Amino acid sequence: MKVLVTGATGFVGNHVAQALAGRGAAVRVLARSGSPHLTRLNTGWELVLGDVQDPASVREAVRGCDAVFHVAARYSFWPTGVRSYYATNVVGTRNVLQAALEAGVKRVVHTSSWVTVGKNRSGGLSTEADTPSRSELRGAYRWTKYLAEQEALGYAAKGLNVVVVNPTVPVGPGDARPTPTGRLVVDFLRRRLPAFVDVQLNLVGVEDVAEGHVLAWEKGRAGERYLLGCSNMTLGQMLGVLARQTGIRAPRLRLPQPLVLAAAYADNAIEGGLLRREPRIPLEGVLHAGRRVQVDCRKATQELGFQPTSVEEALLRAVNWYRQNGYANERR
């Protein structure tokens, strides 16, 4: 079985490729030649240099594959322009799906996000059946991930065997860049987190997310989407877990979201607009922090057999990895 993984130089994509290789699949990856993370790729994986924005390189990568795992996406809380998000997340997804359709690929697993799941209108836990309102999709990342998911579901309607997975907030080892959540863990370990906004999260181990991708390939229903998550908790609760695991005191100052939002608009106008450098308070991240959604992941459990490990274990694996790899200078 030959499988293509896009985004294998990234956090989730790399774990997906590892999980597939562990199942005995012959792994091929599509990666940009200028990526600084090419060294993260296993030497046993076949490498095709290209970009999801380039249809020709996508067709070359897809050729001869039995399955495609489309994990590649632009994920940052500092958007330098909606067009760049659209080019990668939407056009790139369309290129991968079209190439898979033309090549007769047996199954595609498309990596979406829990941000495409809306609030439950009855006030309960959100499920895959809940669609977001336009106001819930503010920001370049959320909007383009939603559009990319619609591309995948549209190709499923055309007859392509596509399964959509919606990871929540993955944590664990190997978050080299790191992701915004990983940056929170690193800042906590460095004692650089004097205050916080108590956002609602659903955390899950990244290895479990990768296993969920494999289960979706094996057992998922075409045209369906599956939330891959574990525990609903607030950021304050997450910091409490980290404090118990590390002995580092969690910050006690909780900032009101409207105050942080106003500061983010000002910082983005000055730092991001006038000075053209990454804002210290990213507006995209603050908008994301205002999203208070709790999710129910039983569909993945019941249909795929998804059984994630505890969030406490996942956070501890992340802490140990950051410490072992020099991210956590814990001097006061």
Describe the secondary structure blueprint for this structure.
Blueprint: E1 2-6, H1 11-22, E2 26-31, E3 46-49, H2 55-62, E4 67-70, H3 82-103, E5 107-111, H4 140-157, E6 162-167, E7 169-171, H5 180-189, E8 195-196, E9 200-205, H6 206-219, E10 225-228, E11 231-234, H7 235-246, E12 253-254, H8 257-274, H9 283-289, H10 298-304, H11 311-324
Parallel strand pairs: 1-2, 1-4, 2-3, 4-5, 5-6, 6-10, 7-9, 8-12
Antiparallel strand pairs: 9-11
Helix pairs in contact: 1-6, 2-3, 3-4, 7-11, 8-9
Helix fraction by DSSP (H/I, runs of at least 4): 40-55%
How many β-strand stretches? 12
Task: Note the main sheet.
Answer: 7 strands, parallel
Class computed from helices, strands and strand pairing: alpha/beta
Give the terminus-to-terminus CA distance. 51 Å
Shape: globular
How large is the share of residues in beta strands?
15-25%
Rg measurement, Å: 19 Å
Poorly predicted ranges: none
Order of helices and strands: EHEEHEHEHEEHEEHEEHEHHHH
CATH class categorisation of the domain at 2-168 and 205-230? Alpha Beta
CATH superfamily of the domain at 2-168 and 205-230: NAD(P)-binding Rossmann-like Domain
Mean pLDDT: 90
State the CATH architecture of the domain at 2-168 and 205-230.
Answer: 3-Layer(aba) Sandwich
Count, helices: 11
CATH fold-level label of the domain at 2-168 and 205-230: Rossmann fold
Write a short abstract of this structure.
The protein is an alpha/beta fold. The model has no long low-confidence stretch (mean pLDDT 90). It is built from 11 helices and 12 strands.
